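Milestone 3.1: sequence recovery, worked example.
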């Protein structure tokens, strides 16, 4: 990595080296997903998901700790994303090449009870 591009200031944990580090929690929020861990790298590759990231350090600055990104309100963000999606779905027939409504283009998994 770093050696191949002639960078001695990255690619290692050492004084004055720029460091981007992630800490993964293999016990996870769903301990059954990993099961017994013999090889942590293999377990992470085969079973890991983004929620397993506990801490992120970028250039020596902690940007996420305990699974929390300071200053990001995920509930509000989800609400904004849902509202934006509802607006897009409401106008789908206007720009869908077949003129389909969102119910026609993406039907529910199960019929909605009336």
């Amino acid at each position: 990595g770093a050696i191949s591009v002639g960078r001695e200031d990255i690619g290692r944990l050492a004084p004055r080296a720029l460091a981007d580090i992630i800490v993964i929690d293999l016990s996870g929020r769903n301990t059954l997903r990993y099961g017994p861990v013999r090889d942590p790298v293999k377990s992470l590759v085969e079973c890991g998901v983004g929620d397993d990231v506990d801490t992120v350090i970028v250039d020596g600055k902690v940007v996420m700790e305990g699974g929390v990104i300071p200053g990001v309100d995920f509930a509000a963000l989800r609400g904004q994303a849902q509202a934006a999606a509802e607006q897009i779905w409401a106008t789908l027939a206007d720009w869908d090449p077949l003129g389909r409504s969102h119910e026609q283009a993406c039907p529910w998994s199960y019929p909605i009870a009336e």
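The radius of gyration is 22 Å. The longest helix spans residues 74-90.
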